[in-house]
Write a structure and sequence with these properties.
Elements lengths: L20 H21 L2 H5 L2 E9 L3 E4 L1 H12 L12 E7 L4 E7 L14 E10 L2 E8 L2 H18 L4 H8 L10
Length: 185
């Protein structure tokens, strides 16, 4: 009886490189340190540089940015306008690593600046990062509830207006986009 050998299965080209949990933890710690610095400096070019040239950034409410330069343009627009311009940091509350896929999954806090009376207003999202190696990420996906973010921004506006600390950008947002998130009292 003649037997035939099974050919060796091929690995698809899209399979991510495998990284150890320690490598992913270290890369994520670097990412978090850099983002913390950016939250202070507001230099969003540095954020774009954390990604590969061909990276994808999936933002469920706003679309998918393809490539570092689209990510760069989008992050500057988003973080230079209210409510992004009033967010003070983006710390991870927890994270897990999935070494076989090269991913880090985390919950990110998005606190807004003090409206004037030490009120803490924030919203969170789940972020899935795919590591490409050498300190760069090939994909980020942010999963969140846009209504929760809108309500948090509106709470901030209402509090700042009450305290007399609301600025022009927040007031304009409050009267336009924010109107759909107004408190129903």
């Amino acid at each position: 009886m003649e037997t035939t050998e099974n050919p060796t299965p091929t690995v698809p080209e899209s399979t991510p490189a495998e990284f150890t949990p320690a490598e992913l933890d270290e890369a994520f710690a670097h990412f978090q340190r850099t983002v913390a610095e950016i939250a202070v400096s507001r230099d969003w070019d540095r954020f774009a540089e954390l990604f590969t040239v061909d990276a994808d950034y999936v933002e469920h409410a706003l679309g998918t940015m393809r490539g570092r330069e689209e990510i760069r343009a989008w992050i500057w627009r988003t973080m230079s306008a209210f409510p992004g311009s009033h967010m003070t940091g983006f710390p991870s509350l927890w994270h897990v690593v999935d070494a076989p896929t090269g991913r880090v999954i985390c919950e990110v806090d998005n606190p807004m600046r003090d409206p004037g009376d030490s009120t803490h207003i924030t919203a969170t999202n789940i972020t899935i990062l795919t590591y490409a190696g050498e300190g760069r990420w090939s994909r980020e996906e942010d999963v969140y509830n846009p209504i929760e973010f809108g309500r948090a921004a509106m709470r901030w506006c209402e509090k700042a207006r009450e305290l007399g600390t609301i600025d022009e950008a927040a007031a304009a947002w409050m009267e336009t986009t924010g109107a759909m998130f107004a408190s129903r009292r």
